[in-house]
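Same chain as my last thread, 289 residues:
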Amino acid sequence: MKLKIFSSIFCIALSAVIFCINSKPALSDDWEDEEDSGISIEINEHISLSEKTKEEIFDLRKDYVSNSIFASPNYEPSEEVFGQIIDQMPWISTDFCSSAPDWIANIDGPAIHSIYITNPSIPILLDLPYYLSKNDPNDRCSTMTYYLTPLEATYSEEKKEVTVTYPLPHVMHSNAAFQLVGVNARDFGYNYIFLDEDKSTYKIKYMEEDNVSNKVIRLEDFIHLGTACHHESGCNNLSPMKNDLEFQPPEPSSVTKSKVQLYLKLWKEEPSSAYAEPDFTERIIFIKK
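reply #2:
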């Protein structure tokens, strides 16, 4: 059976940002009844990383990997992914909102991007690339760390698939969008990603018409000394911002079932097409809480 990579799409203007909505029918509801026979993956908390050296952070990463599905006695953190971390520099806090002039991020406490170091078993995690100021009365950024932290995850060795569950946001700023983050995927050699809408279950809104649902994208994620925190010294933070990997979660009012899913395919080498057999898959589930 021939599968079409490109489905009919139409675009709407939303708060001065153009999103595209997939108009094809969603997957059958039968997927909700599938039994998940995978093993449980522990979700590790955010940790404080400010003032730590690169060597200390690498040692932490090795400890987390040793207890992950990708455990290997010869594991070393990828220099392409983690090699630009700078010793004893600040990291943006999980409570990153700031009321300071010119929006200088809070750097005290656990680091919001530490989740990509402490949870190596989940190849693709989420980020909220648009940090919103507390000065905005409609802002909900103080709750974003909650929405970016998985509730649970499982791994199926037979399927080579991770299923990771997040709470469905109740309220989001109209311009806010999640980004698919492949720090872990890249670290373990999975360099290419595709979001298969034939196996996803809601009408997904994207930041760009040309996006991860209609082309295979090479992952580029890494951590380096950047300027996102607006501190003079800079902060170790995630990069780059990739509009073609950004999407909005479904509006809660539009979700009639208890959960919806995104279905991701990963490859180590560039595939011949988006429908080539993947090396690994991941299901991202949003559930109503």
